[in-house]
Write a structure and sequence with these properties.
The protein has 11 helices and 18 strands. It has 465 residues and is α+β, with helices and mostly antiparallel strands.
């Protein structure tokens, strides 16, 4: 549940990240070294211990499914029971009024930061892009309404993906946008939502899922850290997103984060439909280096990075996905990168109402593909130089699109350029989970001290919204 904002029993207790990073590296014999409180915390997940997920202290000897293979006929055709005051509904994202219901629910009740200063501001265009990839199913957009009024008070979604876990491709879904209305948290709606979306997906003969959360649940396969690159430092200071460091002045900080007026990479231009063949091929080659990736068909690649006719002709206010390629003098595409827009609503600020946020999405480069080992010093040096230039241009393009900050995880090969390009470590961490699938831990680009892991980098190659 990427960015799960339910606050319900599906996400209890949070734990400490430093301890979690150690737990990810433990084997069965190490569990005896845990303190009594750590052992108790592992057993306190009332809902998750009923689900086919790996426990914190479970020794993993081999990767693969947890539950035996079932058939859709074994799965009930009846939805899970709800309290009498609520009823299930299937949300039609082609119906403007129903999209409006989702829009209102998430924009008023989804994830906020700890200080309740910022909240995701999802747009209708974002839903059209994120909820309707090739193969999407209406039945996988699940809502709960108040029976007496019809008000939408909870939502969860799934989209189809082919996941590759260390080369083993599994037909899966990505679970996202789990949200329960603030006034109804504690009604145990979140666990029932998860069970219902699982039932609906199982009926389609799919038994595995990928989800993410800032909450620590049993049991992450990887942990990445959020990082932030200021693009409009003065505004970020005004709204409390950054603080003025001791001994520094505002002009010094503004100068420190100033970027060139325009991109500097020769041959850089927006991705076009005729580029899909080349760009998709480059992307596939690049993705093979990671342990956890989503395999994209050409149709899926086109959807996620071009966004359809609506996005290709979008205005600055409605544009969600930004994708670029580098074409050399011979017509070969050597590089590709993308980022998307997901602004924040700024709460309790009399001057600023919205914060423009750019999120680094997927990228690929041929800079180190001639080497057999991505960790070869020459390969690392070549890729670091190329990515530093490309992502710096991405920051410039995001700034020119009126975004105020550019966010990236420590996933992919990001650790190579984060410090150089002045991405500061954030307070947030994103945990990656596999449902009904055991997997050995996957590096997330951070060390035990939570600093960037430039040496090992990350083997997480999937990016969830």
């Amino acid at each position: 549940m990427s960015g799960s904002g339910s606050g319900d029993d599906a996400g209890e207790p949070s734990g400490k990240l430093a301890e979690l990073l150690k737990l990810l590296k433990m084997n069965g014999n190490d569990v005896a070294k845990l303190t009594q409180s750590q052992r108790k915390e592992m057993k306190d997940y009332k809902f998750w211990k009923t689900q086919p997920v790996a426990t914190f202290d479970e020794p993993i000897s081999e990767e693969g499914p947890i539950d035996r293979k079932k058939t859709p006929d074994e799965i009930s055709s009846e939805p899970f029971p709800l309290l009498a005051e609520f009823e299930w509904c299937t949300m039609d994202v082609n119906d403007k009024s129903q999209v409006e219901d989702i829009f209102v629910l998430l924009n008023e009740n989804y994830v906020e930061d700890r200080d309740a200063s910022f909240r995701f501001k999802y747009t209708r265009e974002f839903f059209n892009w994120s909820l309707k990839p090739p193969g999407w199913k209406k039945d996988w957009h699940v809502g709960v309404r108040v029976r007496s009024t019809g008000k939408l008070v909870a939502f969860i979604s799934a989209i189809p993906v082919n996941l590759s876990v260390r080369g083993n491709v599994i037909k899966s879904v990505e679970i996202n946008f789990l949200c329960v209305h603030k006034q109804l948290r504690g009604k145990r709606l979140a666990p029932v939502l998860i069970k219902e979306i699982t039932r609906r997906v199982n009926k389609c003969d799919i038994w595995f899922a990928l989800y993410t959360s800032g909450t620590v649940l049993p049991s992450p396969v990887s942990v990445c850290r959020y990082t932030h690159r200021p693009l409009n430092w003065n505004k970020l200071l005004d709204v409390g997103f950054v603080q003025l460091p001791p001994g520094a002045s505002k002009p010094q900080m503004v100068a420190n984060y100033t970027l060139p007026k325009g991109p500097t990479t020769k041959g850089l231009r927006p991705l076009k439909p005729e580029d899909v063949e080349q760009a998709h091929s480059l992307f596939e080659k690049y993705q093979r280096r990671f342990d956890l990736v989503q395999e994209f068909s050409k149709e899926e690649f086109s959807h996620w990075f071009l966004g359809g006719s609506e996005q290709m002709h979008a205005t600055p206010d409605t544009k969600v996905i930004y994708s670029y390629v580098v074409e050399n003098e011979h017509g070969k595409i050597t590089d590709f990168f993308s980022f998307y827009s997901l602004p924040f609503t700024i709460l309790n600020n009399s001057v600023h109402k919205e914060l423009g946020i750019g999120y680094l999405f997927y990228y690929a480069s041929d800079a180190d593909l001639i080497y057999n080992n991505r960790f070869d010093p020459k390969a690392t040096s070549a890729l670091k130089e190329r990515l530093s230039q490309l992502i710096n241009d991405a920051c410039i393009l995001a700034r020119n699109a009126k975004m105020d900050v550019f966010n990236a995880l420590t996933s992919q090969d990001n650790a190579l350029f984060l410090e150089k390009l002045k991405f500061g470590p954030g307070d947030g961490f994103l945990n990656f989970y596999l449902f009904n699938y055991r997997a050995f831990p996957i590096t997330g680009g951070i060390q035990d001290d939570q600093d960037y892991d430039v040496k090992k980098r990350s083997n997480v190659g999937v990016v969830m919204l």
